[in-house]
Design goal:
Layout: E1 3-9, E2 15-20, H1 23-32, H2 37-40, E3 46-54, H3 56-67, H4 71-78
Antiparallel strand pairs: 1-2, 1-3
């Protein structure tokens, strides 16, 4: 099963990073308010960026790497910029 890493744009313009195998289901859960605690207070959320084709362990490592990026670097990902030191699937 292939895993995906995603960034959500929250209603307060912040970005939330997560991993899943089913992006549509996960986005629906976030918007129902039963997703991550961070997104519950920032609804609605929408998909801003997606990368796929990862194994589970690499997807979680990539999520951790992205969460440590600055807001500016996350915005560059969303806007189609380079992915510094991206973990290869």
């Amino acid at each position: 099963m292939l895993w995906k890493v995603y960034l959500l744009r929250c209603s307060d313009d912040t970005l939330y990073c997560g991993t899943t195998t089913d992006v549509e289901r996960r986005l629906h859960k976030h918007n129902e308010g039963v997703g991550a605690r961070y997104t519950r207070a920032r609804l609605p959320v929408r998909l801003a960026w997606l990368s796929d084709g990862f194994t589970k362990s690499i997807a979680f490592r990539e999520e951790y790497r992205i969460k440590r990026l600055s807001k500016l670097m996350k915005e560059e990902l969303v806007n189609g910029g380079s992915q510094p030191d991206r973990i290869q699937p």
